[in-house]
Amino acid sequence: MTRLKIEFETAYLVTVIGIGGLALLIGGTLASFGLRHGSGIAAGFGALLAPLFLLYHLWSMAMAPGWIDETGIRRRDGRHFPWRDLLAVGDIRGRRTTGHGTLRVGVEARFRQGRVRVFPLVLRQGGAVLAELDRRLTASGGSPS
Predict the structure, then answer these.
(1) Which of 57, 72, 115, 133 lies 20 to 30 Å from 86, alpha-carbon distance?
(2) pLDDT digits (tens, 9 = 90+) for 114-135
(3) What 3-state class would DSSP assign to 60?
(4) CA 73 to CA 26: how far, in whole Å?
């Protein structure tokens, strides 16, 4: 396997930017309302809404895989996880919009030193990453959880 650079889908990035813009608009409106009507809680929450959204998404993007090759996976924050340390691959499940049951939205590869979360719908090469994780887990004799 050659080194594979993993990139985010353009639609995902556009969606994050759009929701971030909405958070900025709603936060600004709430902060303005709070200042105008003397509500410190509304002003504070409004002022923190967009920065918290931005920090959360920057953190979650840093935890995503950036490179995958014969030696292992490198997250976007620079941490490298060698294949020999792969312990298990487990599902990340999300609730259905109806509230009944769950769906598999991603996988979490657990290594001795940490974990890498893979959400295939937001990555251009999501299918290739999942296939490589399955192949490596099978080769190492690890257990899916």
Answers:
(1) 57
(2) 999 888 888 888 888 888 888 8
(3) helix
(4) 38
The domain spans of the chain are 4-61, 66-144
d(CA 96, CA 80): 33
Distance CA 63, CA 60 (A): 5
Q: How far apart are CA 92 and CA 57, in angstroms?
A: 17
Kindly report the backbone phi and psi dihedral angles of residue 57, in degrees, each rounded to the nearest multiple of 5, phi listed first.
-70, -35
Residue that has been written with the tokens 């936060």 in this structure: 27
Specify the pTM: 0.71
Nearest to 6 by CA among 104, 99, 133: 133
Give yes or no for residue 36 having a pLDDT over 70.
yes
| Contacts with 66 (C-beta within 8 Å, 6 or more apart), sequence order | 5, 6, 74, 75, 76
What letter represents residue 122's amino acid? V
Q: ∠ CA 79-89-106 to the nearest 5 degrees?
A: 85
75 neighbors 81 (Cβ within 8 angstroms)? yes
- Mean pLDDT rounded to a whole number for the chain: 86
